[in-house]
Amino acid sequence: VIPKSHRDKWAELQLPKGVRVTGLRPNEERPAFSHDQIAQIFRHPVFTGRQSAFVYNKPGKVILRDSLYWGFLVAAFHPMRREEFAQLTVQCVRQIDGIWVFDLHHHSLALKNPWSARLVPLHKRFLELGFIEALVEGRNGSELLFKELSRSAVHEKYGDEIGRRAARVLDSLGIDIDENTDEAHR
Q1: What is the gyration radius of the CA atoms in the chain, in angstroms?
Q2: What pLDDT digit, counting tens, does each position of 132-171 carry?
Q3: Cα separation of 7 and 156, whole Å?
């Protein structure tokens, strides 16, 4: 569960609604979620307790810190594409001069373009949630960070599964990404 003291931190992590984001294709011009939508997402059973490991849209007592849990948090705190974080291995999370980073320079990563190789510092609040202890410490460096995510057979890229699961969460909350996109272009 995200501690109550951290739940209001997402308020600083959004663009004003309707701001055009970079890119030429419509799916790259989606505005950020609104303040209310972000609050809604972090009140979802994925963060407050879900029915089981497989039933994540219904309330329950299970809090599973899996790729869905961490994926929304990575998106909230870090400028990364889902395809980037979905393919990270444990060795891609490291400390440089005492600062934890996602290291997107690793040769095994399939990035969108050469300029995508970068260091992404891990946000202090993200670290306070126990990310390093949960997914890095004591693991083999070559293991996928999110072991339940794999390369899509159809698109041959990472991130499809987490994208589908996140879309189901948003659907369960009545958040329509395409509707927001249309509003942004009016």
Answers
A1: 16
A2: 999 999 999 999 998 888 777 676 678 788 888 899 999 9
A3: 35
